[in-house]
Structure formats: C-alpha cells, structure tokens
Amino acid sequence: MTHRWGFTKGDLRERAGDRSYERGLGYLDAVSRLEIGDVAINATVDGTDRYQVELTAGEAGDGPGLTGWCNCPYGLDGNFCKHCVAVGLAVLGQAESLPRQRAAARRRTEVLDTWLESRSREELLTLVRQQLAEDHDLRRRLELRAATAGEDTGIVRERVLNLLDTSPFARYGYVEYADAHAYGQQAAEAVTALRALAASGRAAVAVEVAREALAALGRTYGEIDDSDGLLGEVATGLAEAHLEACRASRPDPVETADWLVNHLLDEANDVTGIDLFDYQEVLGEPGLARARELVVAAWRAEPKGWAEKYLMERLLKADGGSVDEVITIHAADLAPNGHTHLVIAKELQAAGRPADALKWAERGLRETEAEWGPDGELVAFVCARYARTGRLADVVTIRRDLLRARPSLAAYQNLRTAAHAADAWDGAERTSALEVLRAAAQPKKGRWYGGSVLVDALMDEGDLDAAWQAAAEGYADQQQWLALADRIREHRPADALTVYLRWIEPLRKQTGDATYERMTELLLSARACHRALGTEDEFATYLATLRADQKRKRKLMTMLDQHEL
Q1: Largest CA-CA distance found in the chain, in angstroms, rounded
Q2: Structure-derived torsion over alpha carbons of residues 418, 422, 423, 424, reported in degrees to the nearest 10
Q3: How far apart are CA 130 and CA 302, in angstroms?
Q4: Residue 386: what are its φ and ψ, rounded to 5°?
Q5: Strands of 31-36's sheet, edge to edge?
Q6: Cα–Cα distance measured from residue 526 to residue 515, given in angstroms and rounded to the nearest whole number
Q7: Beta strand pairing status for 41-46 and 50-56?
Q8: DSSP secondary structure code for residue 358 in this structure
Q9: Are 547 and 558 in contact, with CB atoms under 8 Å apart?
Q10: What separation in angstroms does the CA of 52 have from each of 45, 86, 179, 362, 483?
Q11: Could you report the per-residue pLDDT of 243-302, keeping only the tens digit for each?
C-alpha cells in the first residue's frame, strides 16, 4: 500500500537493491531525530559513525520518484544506502501519523508567514540584521546582490572571485566529494551575480569579470571531486554568462578573438565547454579572421597538442575543409593504441569512402604498440566490416590474436562469439582458448585476490564442473569460490556448504558492520545447504556454537536475530 509520502517497502528495495535493503533492516533501531516535513524527511542514523539522511518523494502517483541523500561513504558516492532504507522504514512505521505530521509542518510554515507579514519594516530590518550577524553565508549573498545593484564594480569582482575560492572547502588541499556540493552551491552564485551585473547595464564589466572567473575555475577544477557534475554546470553557466555579456556589450572583436583562442588552447579551461563558433556574431569577420590566424599558427607550432588539433579540426569543418585536410591534422599525431586511426576511418566512412576507411582501420591494428594493445572500438570497427563481407575466419583470427596478447573474459567472449558465427568454436578453438587462459594464470592455493580468467570463463559458459575443478587446482580467489558456490548450491549443496563454512571461519576473529553482514549472508547460505541436505539439526548445533563464541558482539547477535538465525 502506498502512503502519503508516495513510497512503499517495495520502492525502498527497488531503489536500494536487495543487499542494501537487507542491511537497512538492521539499522531501524539506529534511526533518531526523525523529522517529517511537508517537503523532505530528515533523520540521524547511528552506524560506524553518525550519519545525516534526507529523503524526498512525491505524492502517490503524482510526484517525483523516491530520492535519498546520506553523508556516509557509500551514500556520498550517489547510492541509496542502507541508512536511507532504515529512515524509509522508520517513516513507514509511522504511516498512520504521517498526514498529521505533514499538516503540522504546513501549519508551522503558514504561522511563520503570517507573523512575518504582520511585522513592520523596522522590525523586519532588525531581524535581518541579527541574522546577518550570525549567518556569514547569507551576509555574503546579500552583499553580492547589493553590489550588483550598485555602482561599485570592484566589490562585485572581489565577491565573484571569492565565491570561486576553494580554500575554505579544501581541508587537505583538495575539495573532496563530501565538500564539493557545498562549494558548488556557493560557486553557482557567481553565475547569478554576473548575469545580474550585465542586466544592470554593465555588460562590459561583466565580460571582464567573467573572464577572470572562468580562469579561476579552470585553475582549481582539477583539485575538486566533481563526481556529480555540479561544478561542470557552474563552468557552463559562467561561459554562458560571458557570451551573453559579450552579445550585449559588443567588445572589440580582434581582442575578443585573442582571448578566446588563448583560453581554448589552455587545456586547464576545457571544463568551460566554450565553442569558438558560438561567438561568430560577436566576432564578425575581423574577429573570425584573427581567430583563424591564431589557430593555424598554434597548430603548426604544436601539431600534436590536443587543444591545437581540436581547434584546427573545428576550424576546417566550419570553413568546409576537405576530409583529407582533416585527416592531415589527425595523422600528425597517431595514438599508440590505434584510436586516431579509428577517428580517421570514421571520417572517411562518413565521407562515403568505406574502402579507405577500412585501410586506415587495418593499419591501426598493424601499428598498435604491444604495450598498449589495440583500441577496442577500432577492433570492433574492423571486425564488423569483415563480418559484413563474409570474412568470418579473419574475424576469428583477430579475436584469437587479441586473446593471446591480452587474456581477459571479454576477449574470450568475443572470440567465442566470432568462432560460433564461423562454425568453428566447438572443438579445437575452444580447447586452445582455454589453454591460453590456463597458461595466463599460475595456480595458487588459498588465493584471496586476483582469481583467474579461466574460472570466470568456465562459469560464464555454465561449465560448472570444469570451473570447480579449476578452482580446486588453485585458480580461484575468494569471490570466485563464493560465486561458484552460489551457482552449484541447488544441485551440489554439500560442495557449496564447504565453501561457505571455509569463509565463515576467518570472520570470527574480525569486527565491524561489514564483517557482521558478510557473516550473516554466509550463514544464510549455509543454512540453505543444510536444508537441501536434510541436516538442519547439524546446522543448529553449528550455529549455537558460533553464537556462544561470538556472543559479545552485540551488533552481530542483533543481525542474526533479525534473520532468525
């Protein structure tokens, strides 16, 4: 049943995944300071540390999907974590009182609005001044608004650059993910300020300040964890504000071209996403002529420079240059993995020259340096064209050579697909491929990490008996053993049970939530095996002994109780 907040237990499980949902069940009692408002739900969850959680969701069938934010490491990576699940479950546990709590939140807002509207101008000014004395962020934002509305452009410039200063957020010389959101929100105010400055009739000033802001962000962007892309949006906003100000103020076209090309040639400014040809109207013919002159000179001086090549290519395409001229640019600096050959091949393919395209792609495969290996997309390009013309044996040869050069599960799968298409997989080809994988990994008894591709390939094919044999010979790591046990559990529960029990033992000496969760999962799997074998009494004895041995680990005992272990 869907309640007023628009989500159910099923929604929580779907959003978090089975693993995080099951873990969240163990944190229900750790939820505190639960505040259910009209817009968001906030709470604290005690785990390895004390975490802050916020959930938002629409009305049933009407609002946006369920979203969650948590400042735990897993949550900060953008995941709907176990703490979010626990808060969601706590909310569901109060389903009957939710309408009252949301109504109360609305009433509090209405009371505050009514009270504010009843205050005099002097009283409100006093309140604002008191708040400004306590809240420095609010003061900074209002000072910036006042400056953009006034005549002191020096203050605006100073404030905009201060908004882009990372030092208050860089605790270790780097703005970590946990701090990047707050920095991004502050930096976004710079975009608003620049647009307000241009709108106030000072677009020429806005152009200059925007240039400084773009340069400042370019210098510091590499020191910010922008996993969410918020700073990328700020950079785009600054670039758009600069272009809008240029269109309004019409700066000198030649000087603007100088700035644009120099800006674009500096790879530190790549984040801004500025395109030279967005400025055609601003530059006019004098500015475009100057830009062409600078770009050509830069490319001739540094034909292997990424920015120089990109600008030269854009210039040629905008001016209607031939595909051979574009190829000349790329051919001046061929990547060691053949990627540049692929770029050239695609240009020729798009120009209606497929034979030349294939020649360049084949050349890329030949010229790839061994230590790099060929670009995967280049290989796919050649193989697709061979397949279209019936050259299936040549596709198999390419895939076989790649497996031998760089054994991997993907290379094995690609060879298998190609050989099946050529009716050449069953028999010698498969046997030879497995021998390549066997030779690529030396068996090591009891290995914990770095399992072999051989075991992965056999499991991928469903040849579980052969995979079990390879694992027994020492080709498997812990994760492969467990994955194999999960696969064979239904038909070979006794063998699977030996794996689960083997990996439970070292966990007895370890502590921590992750350890307890892992032990619980393994015990659940072991119980399933005993049930299949009809030896539940044996499992009960084993579990009782384990619980007696681990009884001081209260969190583990709680988890076992919740799963009826």
Answers
A1: 91
A2: -70
A3: 58
A4: -65, -45
A5: 31-36, 41-46, 50-56, 67-70
A6: 16
A7: antiparallel
A8: H
A9: no
A10: 7, 12, 14, 55, 34
A11: 999 999 999 999 999 999 999 998 777 777 788 889 999 999 999 999 999 999 998 898
Backbone angles phi, psi at 310, to 5 degrees: -60, -45
pLDDT at 266: 87
Q: Are the C-beta atoms of residues 284 and 253 closer than 8 Å to each other? A: yes
Residue 2 reports pLDDT greater than 70: no
Residues 6+ apart with CB under 8 A from 368: 336, 337, 338, 374, 375, 378
Q: What's CA 164's distance to the chain center, in Å?
A: 23
Whose CA is closest to 436, among 471, 402, 416, 407? 407
Find all residues with CB under 8 Å of 304, minimum gap 6, and list them: 332, 333
Identity at 55, one-letter amino acid code: L
Per mean pLDDT, which range of 104-108, 118-122, 170-174 is the poorest?
A: 104-108
Q: Residue 445 half-sphere exposure, CB side, CA atoms within 13 Å?
A: 0
336-387 pLDDT tens trace: 999 999 999 999 999 899 999 999 999 999 999 888 889 999 999 999 999 9
Residues 6+ apart with CB under 8 A from 558: 26, 29
Predicted TM-score (pTM) of the model is 0.57
Can you tell me the distance from the alpha carbon of 503 to that of 482, in angstroms, rounded to the nearest whole number? 9
pLDDT classification of 415: cutoffs 50, 70, 90: very high
What does the alpha-carbon distance between residue 86 and residue 75 come to, in Å, rounded to a whole number? 13
Instruction: Pinpoint the alpha helices (H) of 332-452.
Output: 339-350, 354-367, 376-388, 392-405, 409-421, 428-440
Please, what sign has the CA dihedral across residues 483, 484, 490, 492?
negative
Assign residue 390 a region (left: φ > 0; alpha: ψ between -120 and 50; beta: otherwise).
left
**Which is more confident, 146 or 223?**
223
DSSP secondary structure of 152-164: -HHHHHHHHHHHT
